[in-house]
Amino acid sequence: MSLLIDNATWTTVFEFFARNWALTSIVPTVAVLILFPCYIVRKYTRIALNLIDDFCPPRFPEKRDFAPIEGTSVTFSAFDGHQLRGTLFPAAPRVRGKGTIIFAHEFGLDRWSYYPYGKPLREAGYDVFAFDFRGHGESPGEEGYKPRQLPSDRELADMLGAIAYVGDELEQSGKSRRIGILGLSRGAASGVLAAVDVDNVAAIAVDGVYSSDATVEYLLKHWARVFAKIRLVYENHPPAVWRFLRWVILQKAKERFGCAFPSVRKALRRLTGMPMMFIHGERDTYIPIAQARALHDLAIGPKSFWAVPGARHNRSMSMQPEAYAERLVTFFDTHLAGGGEPDADWPTEVAADASSADATHAQAV
After folding, report:
1. What are the residues whose beta carbons fall under 8 Å from the beta carbon of 312, sequence distance 6 or more?
2. What is the pLDDT of residues 282-317, one digit of tens each?
């Protein structure tokens, strides 16, 4: 009897599925559509976070060992109170002062790498203030925080602290608080992010700049081709898929690393009227030049874009030093200051020391 009942039951079930095959197929279909993407996102997010944590941009050893240039070294506070080290390098002697420019170094280097960029600016009459981001050079690291190639809220706090310190020093000396910013790579991104929240930045020059969100999306597509075994996983996705993935990864990065990664793209939309000069190497394989052009297009104000032929990431100055220096000085002359004629009354004691230090550095390099 039980066997007959079991057979009848199975017959009933079969007939039900036969009559309602479309409805009953929805459940496993939905399960596959939800569970499989969740599995992919979870697995890929874990891989991406590990790569973000460990990945470093190209390094150039010849740029590391810059001989210290004589200047006034100070300790100042980042916006969150963290102590940082910086140095004010005075303008060359017998040139009327034009203003002060803050130099923000790239990831992994320190303030002494300012030299090839700051030398022509100092010769043109600009004081240059260079500082070490936390965990770099002489600036101590923060317990529990590891600097990475993406600019976080910590680098933003460091940059804001440098801007506030220089502005206060200028004001106490009876000078204008207006300053310029010259940033490289991560330092460039930090400068753009900081300029949104202050009113004394007059002009920004960026070399190798990038936005964390756009860079993560670019790297996602690259890593997907490397790690994904199924072409469907990385091909033919609409832009919304990649935007969602980068959002998930940046949110997870915030939780895992204990810091936020602000968007330079969003910051540029808020810098209405800010004069900006974009410099980027045409052969940059770390940050594709298309990303820099996209950021340039978002800038709202006087702007220019110089694509340096043959240059890789942060190598534009070494590829074309004379043209680089000329463009840099012209940009800040136009948007930060004017003049620069020799001034017989300008003090020469400190500047003379700096000039001799330049000669020492040139021999070392």
Report:
1. 58, 281, 283, 284, 285, 286
2. 999 889 999 999 999 999 999 999 999 999 998 999
